[in-house]
């Protein structure tokens, strides 16, 4: 089966989505008044691991990320990313 490039409209590259994810990850932690240390305790991992994720030095596996978020009652969701409108 041949791939039809018009079927999927790429909006972001993986690197862009990673930056957005990291920003949201940090925002979420801070909005919930969780220090990296407390977040790590809930998640059952080290504070260093949380810090490396937040500064972009470490890309956790999907399972690791699900375990971190699941420990505080959250999960990941696949969602369509819409193009930003250009003016």
Overall description:
With 87 residues, this protein is mainly alpha-helical. It has a domain at 14-70: Orthogonal Bundle (434 Repressor (Amino-terminal Domain)). Helix content is 49%, strand content 0%. The chain has four helices and no strands. The protein has helices at 14-31, 36-43, 47-54, 62-70. The longest helix has 18 residues, at 14-31. It is elongated. The relative contact order is 0.14. The mean pLDDT is 85.
Topology:
Blueprint: H1 14-31, H2 36-43, H3 47-54, H4 62-70
* Tally of contiguous helical segments: 4
The N- to C-terminal Cα distance equals 37 Å
- Please identify the structural class as seen in this structure: mainly alpha
Which fold name fills CATH's third level, the topology of the domain at 14-70? 434 Repressor (Amino-terminal Domain)
Order of helices and strands: HHHH
How does the major sheet shape up? none
Helicity, in percent? 40-55%
Task: Tell me what the CATH architecture of the domain at 14-70 is.
Answer: Orthogonal Bundle
Q: What fraction strand?
A: under 5%
CATH class annotation of the domain at 14-70: Mainly Alpha
Number of strands: 0
What value does the average pLDDT take? Answer: 85
Shape: elongated
**So, the CATH homologous superfamily of the domain at 14-70?**
lambda repressor-like DNA-binding domains
**C-alpha-based Rg, rounded:** 16 Å
Low-confidence stretches: none
Short summary of the structure?
By secondary structure, this protein is mostly helical.
Keywords:
single chain, 87 residues, mainly alpha, 434 Repressor (Amino-terminal Domain), 4 helices, 49% helix, elongated
């Amino acid at each position: 089966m041949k791939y039809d490039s018009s079927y999927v409209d790429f909006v972001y590259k993986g690197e862009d989505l990673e930056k957005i994810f990291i920003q949201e990850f940090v925002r979420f932690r801070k909005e919930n008044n969780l220090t990296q240390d407390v977040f790590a305790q809930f998640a059952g991992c080290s504070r260093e691991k949380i810090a490396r994720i937040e500064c972009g030095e470490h890309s956790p596996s999907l399972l690791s990320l699900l375990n971190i978020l699941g420990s505080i009652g959250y999960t990941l969701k696949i969602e369509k990313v819409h193009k930003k409108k250009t003016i």
